[in-house]
Design brief:
Elements (H helix, E strand, L loop, with lengths): L2 H17 L14 E2 L4 E2 L11 H9 L23 H21 L2 H15 L1 H27 L6 H18 L8 H19 L1 H4 L2 E2 L2 E2 L4 H6 L7 H18 L6 H24 L2 H27 L1
Antiparallel strand pairs: 1-2, 3-4
Helix pairs in contact: 1-7, 3-4, 3-7, 4-12, 5-6, 5-12, 7-12, 10-11, 10-12
């Protein structure tokens, strides 16, 4: 497997392990306490006070003191109580941004959508490079394939150095940076986890609704426990937006072996997202659909710009 892919996989697992700071309320039997109306697992280390009376009652009954927490609409961009670097630097500022936008548009689900668009817009100059990288590799592919055929089955050190030098000349000619293809993933992963924790830790977000969808409820719970079939649309949109964003954002392969590796990785990621689409909350699903749709539009615009250049 390509070394860059191995590094990326390691980073994904490290980020998942280091950023999974959400803690859940547990009863006397050590089972996670759920909101019976939505099926949502309730977070114990929330950052502001819930407003739903039944949820407030659950926190009080489980001896979690929420009285010292600020009201969500009054929450500041940073807390005086240090809650770890990840929460302080990433999660709370993001939650504050979503709340401020939600207050303006009178809906926190829309706040998630608009905050996603705003962040992706700010990052556009960086993520655009990934799309341009793919287009440049397509142009360079015939020359790269010639180099592959020229040195086929030749593995001695001198030959490999010549192959590397000729490859780098082609890279320079077309403005290709071998590492820039991973840029999008490195940016996307921490943002995803920040949204995930913000939605889990901010009651006005997981208590909210958008288009009749409760933001804290997962499609699996809504479909199989609550019998709400409209949540199936979330699964469909997550899968479709993920598929087309991967397809348009895929970097052109430099060899048949790399093409097989990238296809395998894409298939694994698609299977993972299909499974995850059932279990993630509606709020994070809305974020994912919005971000993936932004990627699709961005890459279509980049491709059109390259063709017209």
């Amino acid at each position: 497997m390509n070394k860059n892919i191995v590094k990326l996989v390691i980073v994904v697992f490290l980020l998942f392990g280091l950023t999974g700071c959400t803690k859940y309320i547990k009863d006397e039997d050590n089972k996670i306490v759920k909101n019976k109306e939505t099926g949502q697992n309730l977070t114990s280390n929330i950052l502001c006070q819930p407003t739903n009376e039944k949820i407030i009652s659950i926190y009080n009954n489980n001896n979690i003191n929420i009285s010292k927490l600020p009201k969500c609409e009054d929450m500041k961009i940073s807390s005086s109580n240090y809650d770890g670097l990840w929460t302080t630097v990433f999660v709370q500022p993001l939650a504050w941004l979503i709340i401020q936008i939600g207050k303006i548009v009178k809906n926190y689900g829309l706040g998630i959508i608009l905050a996603t668009i705003l962040i992706r817009g700010i990052l556009f100059p960086f993520t655009k490079k990934t799309a341009l990288q793919s287009e440049n590799l397509k142009k360079a592919k015939p020359e790269l394939e010639k180099i592959e055929k020229k040195y086929l089955n030749q593995k001695d050190q001198e030959t490999m150095m010549k192959k590397s030098q000729e490859t780098m000349i082609v890279y320079k000619k077309y403005g290709i940076s071998p590492l820039s293809g991973c840029l999008f993933a490195f940016i996307q992963i921490p943002i995803f986890f920040a949204f995930l924790e913000a939605i889990n830790k901010i009651p006005v977000l997981f208590e909210g609704n958008l288009f009749g969808l409760q933001l804290g409820t997962s499609p699996a719970v809504a479909l199989f426990t609550l019998g709400k079939l409209q949540y199936a649309l979330l699964i469909l949109f997550v899968v479709l937006s993920t598929y087309f964003s991967f397809k348009l954002n895929g970097t052109a392969s430099m060899s048949q072996e790399q093409e097989k590796q990238m296809k395998t990785m894409t298939n694994i990621m698609m299977i993972t997202m299909v499974i995850a689409s059932f279990t993630i909350s509606s709020g994070i699903a809305i974020y994912w659909i919005t971000s993936s749709t932004f990627t699709i539009i961005q890459n279509l615009l980049v491709k059109r710009g390259v063709k017209n250049a």
